[in-house]
Amino acid sequence: YLSVSSKVILIGDTGVGKTSILQRFLLGRFEPFPPISQGVTFRTRSVPLPDRSTTVKLMLWDTAGQERYNALTQSYFTNCAAALVVYDISDQLSFERAGDWVKQLLRFSREPSDAALSSQ
């Protein structure tokens, strides 16, 4: 039996649905209007792989999208295995800024990370 851990960050502008997506994954329910995140929120969830002999402990970092937390966010790009870039499908600017978040990920992560783009 093998257990590994992986750091996953959720990034994107404020109010695009990062926390809602995380709560859906963790709790199995969708909250369309959760409180706005301040700074960075950390959660974990263990997920068994299909072979059932390996479990991945996901260390999930929900970052506030506010610019004032930009310096704080940069430190969390380090050592992430994956990033979920989130935008609001009804907000064109959040979609355009998703590219900026990907650029920050590429700039500040020390190792190549997997990234996925998700709309809320």
TrEMBL record:
Q: Which CDD domains match?
A: Rab
Q: Which of UniProt's keywords are assigned here? A: Nucleotide-binding
What InterPro entries would the database entry show? P-loop_NTPase, Small_GTP-bd, Small_GTPase
Instruction: Give a Pfam family name.
Output: Ras
GO MF annotations in UniProt: GTP binding; GTPase activity
Which parts of the chain are coiled coil? none
Where does the source fall among the domains of life? Answer: Eukaryota
Its name, as the record gives it, is Uncharacterized protein
